[in-house]
Sequence to fold (454 residues):
Amino acid sequence: MDENRQNMSRREFLRRLGLGAGSVVALMALEPLNVLAENRREADEKGGENRMTYRVQHGSGKPVSLLGFGMMRLPNDQDEVNRLVDYAIEHGVNYFDTAPVYMRGESEVLTGNALVRYPREKYFVATKMSNMWGDTSLEKAKEMYETSMRKLRVDYIDYYLLHGIGGGGMESFNQRFIDNGLLDFLLAERKAGRIRHLGWSYHGDVSVFDWLLDHQEEYHWDFCQIQMNFLDWRHASMKKGRRVDADAEYLYAKAEKAGVQCVVMEPLRGGAFGKMADELTSQLRAVRPNDSTARWAFRWVGSYPNILTTLSGMNRMEHLKENIETFSPLEVCTEAENKLLAQIADQMSGFPTIPCTTCAYCMPCPYGVDIPGNFAYYNEAVNSHVLPLPDKTAADFAAHKQQFVDGYQKALADQKQWAYQCQDCEECLPKCPQQIRIPNQMARIVETLRGPHI
Fold:
């Protein structure tokens, strides 16, 4: 049997050996600990520092670091990327996630150049079929697939994803993957071993997510990638009367029931948890004074057993070191800590922020607007209680508005990037995985700025 591709899941294998459900669960729960213990033993023998927590990939039985390196926002400097990757691998990180559309194609190049310096079995690389926009022909998709192989300097891809399923509903999914024969091609590539694990990332219409898992017996998905954090667990967006961007609690539970492991994206909500309101972070500091909000968020995600790895876009060494420390080994959240985070999520859900994760898929704007920059500043103003503005008749209205304007001018020094430049062309709309009505939100910012102050 090909060790890289087994249709029989680990759970099914143990069941056929005659073990009861309780024994199966117990054995599977112990697997990450056994892998961690073995890894620590090897690290001690070599004088290394690897205490990383691992999860076991169903089917292959291979250990995957619970902290994954998201390569979306890398520094555009190969030496610096090499330095980050070297530190990550030295401390046990072995999962590296990229895509053709990250950094306008440069992410795969930087990632491939950094990883090729290591033995191939030392790392897992994930990339995606990013055919969300433009030509959806099979020929164009094959070209993207082969280009990824070439840029990553590999002859097989460990984790390959159908990128951003859900956007545009089933109609878009069928156009991108079914009608053109692309899914059949990718399944054949998995069978041939050039793709070792096949899955998908999800944003948008939950009916597509449901359809894929409902057809698990036909496609045997190896994993799925979902947006999961303590806020989106029960407070994800609901739009247009349909279930769109369903709560992470629902996504996780359905994937777990189907036997499909989850890769987590946006565990920090695009960095939003690093800029929470002071009254929220103070509640966390009261319990764990030395822990950052990022560490709280990572511990919360990693506490769920069906999480294979948790992606973090680490473009600075201090962030990489802190995150590695969090997962080396992971300290799971207590019941009391989970309750506290749920309460904080309830409070955060009442803040009128824009659900932008700064992924920058919407960029570049044809009119020069810095869309993520505008939204990041607006959300910061909400979290610091500059917004919403008090009633115009209030004595402190003018002071609040001037504070917002002054901060806006500082955050976006180039006026060509201001919200005023938005022409409502809607080119950004189909690109946004969060389904944000971007022109509407730009108009909201303009209205807040409007007046004699700017």
User: Anything to note?
Assistant: The chain is about 45% helix and 10% strand. The longest helix spans residues 21-46.
